[in-house]
Amino acid sequence: MKQKFKNYGVLIGERSTDYRANERVGALPYQERQLDGNWEPFLPLGEWQASDDGDSMSCVSFGEINGIETQEKQQTGIQVNYSDRWIAKMSATTREGNFLWKVAEAIRKHGLVLESDYPAPLKYTWDEYHADIAEPYLSHLKQKGQEWLKRWEVSYEGIEVSKASLMKHLKHGPLSVVLPGHLVLNFYTTQDVVNYFDSYPPYRKTTPSVVQAMKVLLTLRTLAPDPDSLFADLKFGDFGPTVAKLKRALIRLGWTEAKDLPDFYDQETADYVHRFFLANLDGWSWWWERYYYKGRLVDRVRRDVINNLLTIRT
Questions:
Q1: Do 69 and 123 sit in the same domain of this protein?
Q2: How many CB atoms lie within 10 A of CB 279?
Q3: What's the total number of domains in the chain?
Q4: Do residues 132 and 274 both lie within one domain?
């Protein structure tokens, strides 16, 4: 008989367009920001996602915001408490909960506001917690969120759930991970156990494994990579937003004819990319491009050329 788990507010699922670490379709640039992979010294104070009268079903908002508060303290030394209720509302959390990507996208789009700006009532039902925000206060909160986004950039990608994967990516940032029916913040993992920060007391707990994981990163705008930087390899036959990004980058670098290229890596695109790299590569890389690649692949070496030129010229 299949075991049933109580759901505390997480919905399982990803979009085909979502970034995933180590995959060609899109990935974030990997950095080691916390070398020991242990974010416990920067964890926020625990907050309960429920009250005596009901549950907000907002574990995804609580977990992802806990991760952002943890990163902000690691980067600035300041402990900030953001409103979980704000993002739970702006991400349209349902009575069954929400998806990881939907909450992360709401943070990326709407920004965060302080807990004091939009606090949770001491006691609440689901309806009261997720009540509509009346004007003009809604516009006031939206403006505050946009002010926050002027300082911070939020990005996210899915990652594999093996212990090796968790341990690697914890050096980059704390991880939003899913237990059966519940999202929590993974702040440290060893070969034996996953240590996590919960939105129910006691807040520090352990589990042997998780079923889904996402890395939601916080980066100061002044340190964020160029929005048209390429972080995934491209090859002949690819299509979609990453090919469109390649085209935008080429246009910005002065190759204005790229605007007429399709968002499909066809032979016309390969011929154009080939000419670009012949003009911007040297040494053995030029010879490989001239006689072997012929514009049909944008690998790490070629991505670095584009990314470096974007940095220099913008």
A1: yes
A2: 9
A3: 2
A4: no
Domain hosting 202: range is 10-221
Q: Are 58 and 88 in contact (CB under 8 A)?
A: yes
Q: What is the CA radius of gyration of the chain?
A: 22
Same domain for 159 and 184?
A: yes
Compute CA distances 16 → 166, 183, 213, 215, whole Å: 22, 21, 16, 17
Both structure tokens of 222: 């002044």
Which positions ≥6 away from 139 have C-beta within 8 Å?
none
Q: What is the pLDDT of residue 145?
A: 97
Whether residue 136 is found in the same domain as residue 263: no
* pTM higher than the cut 0.90: no
pLDDT band at 313 (very low <50, low <70, confident <90, very high): low
Same domain, 128 and 252: no
Residue pair 216/104 in contact (Cβ under 8 Å)? The answer is: yes
